[in-house]
Amino acid sequence: MQLATLLIGLVAATALWSGVQALNQQARNAYDRAAATFGGARTAMLVSRDGASLPQQLFVDLRRAGWPVSPVLEGRLQIEGRSFALLGIEPVTLPAEVGNAPSVGRSGMVSFMTPPGEMLVAPETLADLKLAEGARARANGGALLPPLRVQSQLAPGVLVVDIGIAQTILGMPGQITRLMVGKAAGKHASLASVAGDRLHLIEPDADTDLERLTDSFHLNLTAFGLLSFLVGLFIVNSAIGLAFEQRLPVLRTLRACGVSARMLNAVLVAELVSLALVAGLIGLVCGYYIASALLPDVAASLRGLYGAQIPGQLSLRPEWWLAGIAISVIGALAAAATSLTKALRLPLLAAAQPRAWHQAQRRWLTYQSALALAAFAAGGGLLWFGDSLMSGFAVLAALLLGAALILPAVLEAVLSLGQRFASRPLTVWFWADSRQQLSGLSLALMALLLALAVNVGVATMVESFSRTFLVWLDGRLAADIYVSAANDEQAMEIKAWLRERPEVAAILPGGRADTQIAGAPVEVLGLPDHATYRDNWPLLQSAGNVWSRLRPGDAALVSEQLARRLKLSVGDRIEMPAPGGSWPLQVIGIYADYGNPKGQITVNFAALTRRFPGIPLTRMGLRVAPPEVPALVADLREKFALGERNVVDQATMKAESKRIFNRTFAVTAALNAFTLGVAGIALLTSLLTLANSRLPQLAPLWAVGITRRRLAVIELLKTMSVALITTLFALPLGLLVAWCLLAIVNVKAFGWRLPFHVFPMDLVWLVGVALAAALAAAALPVLRLARMQPASLIRIFANER
Amino acid sequence: MTRSIVLHVTGLTKSYRAAGEEIAVLRGVNLTVAAQESVALTGESGSGKSTLLHLVAGLDAADGGEIRLGGVSIAELDDSGRAELRRGRLGLVFQQFNLIPSLTVADNLVFQSRLAGRHDPDWYEELVERLGLGHLLKRYPEQLSGGQQQRVAIGRALAAKPLLLLADEPTGNLDEATADEVLALARDLVTRSGCGLLMVTHSTRLAATLDRQVNLHAGVVA
Amino acid sequence: MKGSGPITRRGLIGSALLAGFTAKAVAQGFAGLGEAAEGFAPVVPGRPFTFPGDHGPHPEFRIEWWYVTANLVDAGGAACGAQWTLFRQAIAPGPPREGWTNQQVWMGHAAVTRADTHRYAQTFARGGIGQAGVEAQPFHAWIDSWSMRGLEGLNGTNVAPLELRASGADFSYALRLDADRPLVLQGDAGYSRKSLREQASYYYSQPHYAAKGSITIDDRPVEVTGQAWLDREWSTQPLAADQSGWDWLSLHFKGGDKLMLYRMRQTDGRHYGSGKWIAPDGNAELLASTDIAMTPLAFTEIEGRKIPTAWRIEIPRRALAIECTPLNAKSWMGTSFPYWEGPIRFGGSHEGLGYLEMTGY
Question: For chain C, what is the domain count?
């Protein structure tokens, strides 16, 4: 039995931990691929100061001046309604250290460079396109693209072509977007003497953009993994405690026979380590399956939140296996530390009467409460002084740790209160005995508390998020139909055609440009002044009357993320890099832009087209009475041969967005459930461990005339009541956790703060789940008690344990 | 004055199955204990004296024969009936673990009597005084010496004024002097409360201090 | 087979361009150069050379190079050498296209050599965008910041005066080249036969440069003077599949005579030599394989290859018997297509300086 619980604990701990690690590793590999593909942040780069594209001549001038640069042209390309990143590279000057970037094969280089060229894609992208290698896809504009060729090191979702071909596809002849700077630099002229102040050098960075963006997500996963791991160790700890307790007489006998304490310990450690190895292996296999099961959700989350592409096939490195085994062994040894120390110091004779339990308990409670207060103080300090995501998580950790440590004191207080108000002898005993049981159950109860609090916290956050998100979606997706034409000409035709349709109440042009502010990418959105936006746009703060104030083109609305990052508030001024020079704008409003990894600035549509003359004018929103929508969508698709993604009605778009965001937190929810399950197991093993030492407590009651069945019922009630108190304590704690997540962690991780809602039904449901878990955990020991042979109870009075 | 018979045991048999074999522990025991009478049950190890005590206490069920306790036949009672009988009519004192560790001495003392609804404050006061527990009431059992613990156990067992006090080696863990003192108190209180005492002991010295000795041998009264 | 050597040797290097810049590509380069001449202009005898027009590129031919080697001494009398090379390779035939679709790929190699160090660099560029190219008039050949430029008053038949510049991560040089004598047409009036199968190149040299300038190694510039040699060659189908490498020399005699000499190493073991003796007055004599004996004297191990860096050379017809020793035995060009190229000195029946190039080891 202990063997089973020990194994369960270790397997659960290792499985959850290594599963989470596998997921993180998988994602990191994908980021590395993406980073390598772009020669991204790992290579020094020259980029335009104003965010506009650069003339190719600048590349030639820099080369002629001795700069080891290679040109890159980036853009987006629609194929079958899906958007891909198009990367144009120049293989001849590509720096050697760009590493596993498209190493254009030797003989392949000529065909890569010579029209029609080649389009290099990751195997996943080829599968996405549903095309065979060598086939040629068509861009949404109709242009035939170069034949596809698979290059396995590439990141999914990226299409790599020769720069000349990219210029043609993107309609940007003679233009580049950035320059990679090779390391083999000799003497070269100063940047300013060649390019004036148009360029600025970005030094290579060990972290990729994606890594930085997704850090929070992985921290989140790791935190959950760690929590599960610790809860798993609680189980191991109690299982080992029980095993040790039961072996005490044997150990004493062995010591009495002359086996040295050191020898005894070595044997115990060896036994434990071999068990841990077995459990670690099983745990790794389980971890692998957990990771495989969660991977689609993780991939969906990362794609939805950050646009990161993670392949759906799990691939693991040998280090992962080794680390998993190691963590299992280390965890087992850590959990066994107290028992092993006890074995090492085991006196040959049984200990004398211990100190009165309630005195020991008081000391223990005082000590733990002091620690708890210290943890709370640390958390408060971090809350006050901390300003990073890490500190946000640290606040959470301190809060949870403090709460866990103070839990026994809270329980003790409630139980003694109960005892004080009890008058019937059995009730008095009920409370008194629960108090005495505290020290044995506290670890498991702490695990339960943590699991519950995190569950409440995360559930509240997710619910708050989804409620806010739905309202926000209604505001953001205010138009009834969204159209994206293949090119400007088609957009004109569509507009002309739409004007003839009586059911179209309004055509809302939209424009989008990309720029950089403070070194980070920013989207610029151009929207017209229209009732649709006036009525619906999800403004969080504003100076009032914003839409007409946007019209002159000197004001902008800023997304919450960007406002937080740049510390902007209404009334501040920003300088936005634009092709024609810096564009001064006053911030007149801040709006919610959930789920967007980039910062966003909204300006008047006409002003945007003036400042960014080159942007495509292919997007438009339509106001149409809902009943007319399906027919119009069908007509548009047929008339202009537009794909499913080019004409989308509001309902479909909302459904799609909701689907993405539901999956975003699916992993968290799954880990949550795992954690709660593990906490339940911890409670069960603790109760089983206690069950044996409970007999001397229960036997006198039975002897004075309380039936075993009644005793069993009382025992069950006791477990349920401490579980209930723990759960009730977990609720406010969980809400506090939710507040931390919403107000600290989310703000740091994603840049947005969500309103805090409490969902009573969810809380009631969770209380139910917790009690069900406690009932399930308590059932087995209680059943055993109810069916216990009288002889087993009688023996208590006559023999030594 | 004829003292009423509180315990009447006739033809009691009990056997256990151990290692697939029937072992007859009691083979037809006859025994009576009168009110205010103290009876020592002696016999060598394995003679069945403890088993007899447990059967009388209703902790276990007999195979045959009859146990009448204050006119009630135990065999006719179910598990909860026997528990009720223990609660109200019997006092039990064992060698160890008599007390409830989570309760104070005071709570332990009143536990059974209040459970049985037979709490008598005067009798309680007298018990506390006679047992010399006045200064220990707020302590917990594990803070008491062995002798003190057994005194509390006797007090708890007699608090409900039972018909019969059953004791199984109550002084087995005590030194001789303490044992004598505890036993003297027990006998005194048995007399004062008017109940009978059936005590299992292997000590002939202690057995000799009681009113009567019954020796069990090979499952029958010798 | 006479006169086919140089086109072969340089052609192999040029093939590295097409082959994709790694040593592994050598075999592929051989194969690539042996075929696919379709669409390019053939090399035929009797082509009149016109200057300065022929100093510019000939994109109708597949490969072409501008190649300078210089034997120099610094102010302290220490010998040193410099190499400047620009290769052109067309990856597809047809009239040159504009921009990125241009069919030319360019490769530059530069090196400086002293007795105690050898520094080199390479760079690549695509044609059509201005990163590299050659213009005949005014004469200018360049890739990145490297250039060979005609100075004021350039004499088309002397190909002088020229200014030569190149730099790597840890070296750079700038040289001025002057010549008072006209260039020399190699082979038969510039038509250099490569094999009996009528493969050939157009080839001329200017071996008479006086060089002056400075070489900077590790940020320490030194003034240098000496002599230099320009090779110009273009062709379409330069290589035979059974050639494994070559050993090539350009020699400046103390008396002012010049000698170009090479030995083709063939997989069948029959090494084939050729050369041209150029007298100070410009008279030149073609040397046949049977006239030349080249014997390795000493080997140097570099990157696991055994390379003959000292040679005995005998040409009985010209009463020449010399031994050549390298200035720096480790003049290794560890470029995408690696080879040995460096300054040498020689003594015996004749004395002087020169350059040795060896490939395929």
Answer: 1
Chains that touch C (3 or more CB pairs under 8 A): A
Q: Prior bond to C161 cis, omega within 30?
A: yes
Residue C10 banded pLDDT, cuts 50, 70, 90: very low
A66/C131 touch (CB, cutoff 8 Å), yes or no: no
Instruction: Please return the burial class of A760, using the count of CB atoms within 10 Å of its CB with bins 0-12, 13-18 and 19+.
Output: exposed
Closest C-alpha to A539, from A471, A605, A480: A471
> In chain C, which residue ranges form alpha helices assigned H by DSSP?
5-19, 26-34
| Domain total in chain B | 1
Chain A interface mutation, best of C145, C170, C220, C336, highest count of A Cβ atoms under 10 Å: C145
Distance to chain A for C217, nearest Cα, Å: 12
Q: How far is CA A796 from the centre of its chain?
A: 53
Q: What one-letter code names the amino acid at B74?
A: I
CATH code where residue C323 lies: 2.40.370.10
CB contact under 8 A, A106 and C19: yes
Q: What is the pLDDT of residues A61-89, one digit of tens each?
A: 999 998 989 998 888 787 876 778 788 88
**Residue B24 falls within a domain, yes or no?**
no
Query: Hey, which residues 699-718 in chain A have their CB within 8 Å of chain C?
Result: none
Q: What is the pLDDT of residue C19?
A: 37
Query: Dihedral of CA A590/A591/A596/A602: which sign?
Result: negative
More confident residue, A234 or A760: A760
In a domain, B67, yes or no: no
CA-CA distance, A726 to A8, in Å (whole number)?
A: 24
Give residue C66's domain range.
31-359
The enclosing domain of B138 has a CATH number of 3.40.50.300
In a domain, C156, yes or no: yes
Write out the two tokens for A572: 């501040």
**Domain membership flag for residue B13:** no
For C276, residues 6+ apart whose C-beta sits below 8 A from its C-beta are C3, C184, C186, C187, C259, C260, C284, C285, C286, C287
Q: From residue A15, how far is each of A5, A271, A670, B74 by CA, in Å? A: 15, 21, 14, 56
**Taking Cα atoms as reference points, which of C299, C360, C335, C325 lies closest to residue C79?**
C325
Q: Which of A65-74, A330-339, C37-46, C298-307 has the lowest mean pLDDT?
A: A330-339
Contact A151, A160 (CB under 8 A): yes
Which of B222, B221, B220 has its CA nearest to residue B25? Answer: B220
Which tens digits make up the pLDDT trace of A181-235?
887 666 777 777 887 778 877 766 544 455 555 665 676 667 667 766 776 776 6
User: Hey, of C100, C102, C172, which one would you mutate to test binding to chain A, going by the most A CBs within 10 A of its CB?
Assistant: C100
Whether the bond into A116 is cis, omega within 30 of 0: yes
Contact A435, B102 (CB under 8 A): yes
Residues 6+ apart with CB under 8 A from B215: B42, B43, B221, B222
Residues of A in contact with C120 (CB under 8 A): none
Cα three-residue angle C120-C126-C127, rounded to 5 degrees = 120
Residue by residue, DSSP assigns C28-89 as HHHHHHHS--TTSPPP-TTPPP-TTGGGS--TTSSEEEEEEEEEEEETTS-EEEEEEEEEEE
Tokens representing A607 are 């002003």
Summary count for chain C: helices (H), strands (E) = 2, 23
User: Which residue of chain B is at minimal alpha-carbon distance from A697?
Assistant: B100
Share of chain B above pLDDT 90, in %: 5
d(C-alpha B10, C-alpha A190), whole Å: 118
- Reported as a pLDDT band with limits 50, 70 and 90, residue C8 is very low
Instruction: Give the global pTM.
Output: 0.62
User: How many whole angstroms separate alpha carbon A372 and alpha carbon A399?
Assistant: 9
Q: Is residue C210 assigned to a domain? A: yes
Please state, as a whole number, how many other Cβ atoms lie within 10 Å of the Cβ of residue A264: 17
